[in-house]
Amino acid sequence: MTRPRRRTSAGQQTFFPRRVLIAPIGPPTPIVWSAFSETDQELLLEDLDLWVTWLVERYHLDHRTVPPCWTRHPELIEELSALQLAWQGAYSTSAVPDAPLNWHERFAAARIRISDWVSRAGCRPGAHREM
Question: Per-residue DSSP letters for the chain?
């Protein structure tokens, strides 16, 4: 199967679309958030934020699933971090062919859990609430 070519802004033909995320290489490593200093956690959170931003845009998630204040909720950090880890494993170079499909099944279940956390917190756009 051949992918359709996309035109660049200069009108040139290109085979691959612009890369948004770096493809996972090698086995993913779980993050034990409590094992890191606050400074290290902030750096790890920046990386996770990049992925979560991509996830929200790619899957058209709204504030009821991933609120803008998700980084202020440890339970959402843990859930989204685990989801990212599973995504990295599913799309790594050593993944089995049906791994992406399995990830989407886990993603569906995770969205329910995340939405449940968000509804309990009661956060709204522009209005964060501590749990």
Answer: --PPPEE-TTS-EESSPPP-SPPP-S------GGGS-HHHHHHHHHHHHHHHHHHHHHTT--TTTS-TTGGG-HHHHHHHHHHHHHHHHHTSTT--TTHHHHHHHHHHHHHHHHHHHHHHHT-BTTB----
